């Protein structure tokens, strides 16, 4: 893997409080815009990791952390919406492997408090907890090397970048040209939470499920997959407990034959690989980073792909589905189901089927819809925005370019 093929990193300080789409737009839009424009390459696809430092985890002990799922997924949805709006504005393709000029962006949270101080003799190491969210020391130890590191020109941005660079020292020999300052936004923190005013903490689950087509993996898919991963109850390393399971039903090719521009639908195998490769960015923690060009080791069978992460504590299982229910009515031990606004009714239908079989109903979690209305500068932008994050529209664009079918 050449240096240009490495992802770039944008380090963002904590989000505004209270968090609204307008406040998020003011805080992050200038930085994300600069990073997208600087990261894209005319000769190939680029990748950008948008890492947000956000002290969201609660709990005294490393292996008993909790957080508010609704609060976290709302932030991630807002950032992916902002990325999509900017990519639409500047004609940047957002899907994975989008080709020259595209930027494949991934949003990751780092649980770290800006008031935390690391002693001079501190040695960062990979220390996962019972969630998929990592702290700054673990992030610095497992995420590298980078093509560019974009740092925000603000007091908070400077604190974040200095902490990261100190902890990441020795992981990568960085040239000065690879450290790129970008414009910061306006962040206001006016909400004063009382000790009892924290948002309700969300339970995590040994087995989580969701479904979709995942054709040309784009920000809407990434939000859904990230939101599901956040619900996983990750066993501690060395624990005799079985791994937590993330079961993802992916629509079979036969069910997509009547889709618009069906000749350009990616094969089930390609869609399943892309799902696992995307999740590997959230779940894998290797002390070698990705400098050897290593990727997820996928055990591939017909309609059944599996991969494990974090020393075998997390198992991702992609299965081919040929109906609206998939594994939710064949695997009893599933506890949680993640849906989007468009598939809300499907969650209710799943639970009705499970109750008919005498099984427990699933806890259903609904992710936010990526929305351009609240932060677009002009109403006409919404049309262009929608065209950028729709798999149908991406297939249409590929067809209009005369590209090869998948």
From TrEMBL:
GO molecular function ontology, one term from the record: dephospho-CoA kinase activity
InterPro entries: Rossmann-like_a/b/a_fold (IPR014729)
GO BP: coenzyme A biosynthetic process
Domain of life: Eukaryota
Gene3D superfamilies assigned to the protein according to its UniProt record, in alphabetical order: HUPs
The name this protein goes by in its record: Cytidyltransferase-like domain-containing protein
Organism: Thermothelomyces thermophilus (strain ATCC 42464 / BCRC 31852 / DSM 1799)
